[in-house]
Amino acid sequence: MNNVITLQLLSFFIVGLAWAAWVLLPKLQRWRSHAAMLNAIPTVGPTGFLSGCLGTYRFFTNAREILQEGYEKHPNRIFKIALIDRWAIIATGHTMVEDIMKASDDQLNIMEATAETLQVEYTLSKEVVIHPYHVSIVRTPMTRNIGARFAEVRDEIVSAFADHIPAQDDWVKIPVYKASFQIVGRTANRFFVGLPLCRDPDWLDLNTNFAVEVFISAMIINLFPAFLKPIAGRVLTRMPSSMKRATKHLAPIIEERLARESEYGSKDWPGKPNDLISWLLDEAKNEQRTVSDLVTRILAIEVAAIHTTLPSKSTAFCNALYQLAAHPEVIIPMREEVEATVEEFGWTKEAVGKMRKLDSFMKETLRFSGGGGLVNTRKVIQDFTFSDGTIVPAGTTIGMAAYMHHHDEAQYDDPYTFDAFRFYKMRNREGESLKHQSISPGLDYITFGNGRHACPGRFFAVYEIKSLIAHILMSYDVKLEKDGVVPPYEWHGPSMDPSSTGEVLFKARR
Q1: Do 277 and 391 lie in a common domain?
Q2: Which of 56, 116, 279, 307 could lock onto 312 through a cystine, CB 3.0 to 4.6 A?
Q3: Whether pTM exceeds 0.70
Q4: Model confidence over 495-509: pLDDT tens digits?
Q5: 318 is in an annotated binding site
Q6: Three-state SS annotation for 171-219
């Protein structure tokens, strides 16, 4: 009897051992393979037992120095930086940009990377990643309607400047970081939701602060290890209160639109507004045509419009103001261009598109002071092999060091000098008149990403900012208190932002 029991126990043990080997050995092999791939990638910064904690702290406080060190030590390669529970992998050089650009979504996925970077599950909603239909709204109807809605955008630009930077005969100091968010927020919302909501103080305050809170909350949540992120996410985000505020403004509008559809039995009805809410309702499926889902989508697009992982319109506009005031020699040539173009074509999308000197100034601003540390971020879905043979394991995240890329002598002549008409001169070369526009991504210009996943909102962003600068050129004189001295940039982790305390002096144009 005892022998039978012993044999049964032995059988169970053997079966259990075989099952464990069958389940665990592949995982062990996978872990060893994963570790071997990572070990083959050079490391910048700490590598010891406490490397995760030290690396996270250093990356949060000295990202520029770390990225610059890696960029210079490992040109045209990839390197890694230890964070608290993962590795940040950075790619450098043209070849790496092209490899990332050509990769399929099954290999390198931008949506998964965005969800992780912004901690979307806690700061917005999983739905915006699982069913990202709002991205096609930005890519198609929003971009297609820039011309049709341009007169309204222009009207809001004039009104917003009159309210926030009234033209006066004497010089007035303006804290331009705050003013940039206010003016860009109003102008964008005139395009998105129209009057009167675009001027509602509570709606604008919600949009501006919510966008900032999303990025700050995500940055802090990412400092925690994976098992603590759910707790940090619940404690550190204000999504429920923001949704409540947004719903108060948007629910009556959405419900009225749905009622009109029901009344006419069609999505097309007389007097239907041509705005973001209508575009979303046209695209949303049945289960997505709810107030809650639509409010979430609108907030997500507002976040992207006012402050995104790429240079936001607000920070890009603020940087442009600093550079315009720091380089008075470019004002007259650009002002003459704006005057001549508007005289011929009026204040239209077509006119703004023909302002080549202004476009060059805008692109140089984005090259010189936009993009920050990391762009083109992708989540590695399956082990990915770069053209130099380096393999990046699945589960990691990879990005491009934008500031370093744009200040590389291999990419640009005299890269640390701000040359407002750098790209204007390039476009004057034979056969290059359509190249080098501020909306055109390239291997040397990665501000808006590259390939099929280049930022879909860049068209509206560039037209809006160029229109804002054109209005300043026509209406104001500007200068800095210290001639030519741009207030110092602020690095927050890998993000490079314009000074939040700097001022520009404005007065009515003579």
Answers
A1: no
A2: 307
A3: yes
A4: 888 999 999 999 999
A5: no
A6: CEEEEHHHHHHHHHHHHHHHHHCCCCHHHCHHHHHHHHHHHHHHHHHHH
